[in-house]
Description:
Layout (H helix, E strand, L loop, with lengths): L2 E2 L4 E2 L8 H6 L8 H5 L5 E5 L6 E5 L10 H4 L8 H9 L5 E2 L16 H6 L5 H11 L5 E10 L2 E9 L2 H6 L12 H9 L3 E5 L1 H13 L1 H6 L2 E4 L9 H9 L7 E5 L8 E6 L4 E5 L15 E6 L6 E5 L20
Parallel strand pairs: 1-5, 6-8, 8-9
Antiparallel strand pairs: 2-14, 3-4, 6-7, 10-11, 11-12, 13-14
The structure holds flavin-adenine dinucleotide (FAD) and iron/sulfur cluster (SF4).
Amino acid sequence: MKWLPWWEPTDSVPKVESIQDVVRTGLCISCGACVSAAPQSSMRMVLDKRGRIYVPEILDPSAVSGRGPEFEACPGVGLPLGKLSADLLGEGMDMTLELGRYRLAIAARSTDSSILAEASSGGVMTEIAAHLLEKGYVDGVTIARFEYGPNGLRPVSLIARSREDLITGQGSKYCPTLTNLLVRECIAEGGRYLFSGTPCQVGALRLAMSRQPEAAKVFPYTMGNFCGGYRDYRLIDWLISKHGFVPSEVKFFRFRGGGQPGTMVIETRNGRRVSEPYPNYARGSGIPKLKRYVLHRRDRGTGRLRLWRRVAGPVHVPGHPVVDHPGPV
Ligand SMILES: Cc1cc2nc3c(=O)[nH]c(=O)nc-3n(C[C@H](O)[C@H](O)[C@H](O)COP(=O)(O)OP(=O)(O)OC[C@H]3O[C@@H](n4cnc5c(N)ncnc54)[C@H](O)[C@@H]3O)c2cc1C
Ligand code: SF4
């Protein structure tokens, strides 16, 4: 295997030995994997004091130390991307930090106009998910959609069971989502699911799978989008207030959709609407992206721990069925 480096390694790595350290050093990406890996009811996710992200809280210190399975499943510490992709695809291939290892790269889009209407890109994630559901390969798919409450909007993670459900979850949420909390729920319910989420979330699932055989059974398929990182919930509130709205007025929000590269849209209950091209709106918010270290390995020569900042890549599963969708592409 040959590494094709593009990202700069960094040695300025905080010492992280527990879930508490992950949160303290700002490395938590708010995925919920720790809560899913911990004993039932021993942990939960709570909004942090500044309302930025959900972070784990230990409810039962006699059952959870923060250094056990909950820590082993945490992608905030860094993901052994090289090992994870070698376990899936073998050692033989070249690897880029952006893509990981890959068998085949193809460009595609959905030809279903109802999927294309709200897709962030070409609707491929939703089309593949719909195919797996409708052909009976899976019973459900993890998705994220916005819910609107008196304090504004936040994403919720849930299981989609139909094409219609999938469409309600379309569109990129450029903010944290609690997708890995669904792992516990799916294991408890049984069946087969497509785990769809950000690459770090898929990586967290892979860590859990290596320890929990039942997780591997329940999630025969995974699908990750590309991810250049994201800001916290304050970005949503900032966008809403920047356009002169108050969060409780909002009845619809999307970061991106309606064509390529698409627009952000805010609609209020009293009929006001604003749209702004992607990605103009994220500039100038002053809200930093969540920190991530996604790869770690020991340098052969020095034995030093090296980490790379940023990086994401889709995780491909061998034998993943190909969507054979007739029609123009
Ligand atoms: C946080 C984030 C950062 C990204 N950064 C980049 C980038 O830098 N460069 C790039 O080329 N592409 C990036 N993407 C990918 C891009 O925005 C689209 O998500 C992707 O191309 C899929 O488009 P689609 O039309 O096939 O998906 P759609 O049909 O719109 O479906 C998207 C699916 O992803 C799910 N989803 C959306 N957001 C989240 C989330 N935060 N957590 C879990 N599930 C989610 C939705 O519920 C839906 O099921 C990013 C996406 C996200 C979520
Ligand atoms: S597993 Fe996820 S939610 Fe838990 S500490 Fe790590 S990054 Fe944060």
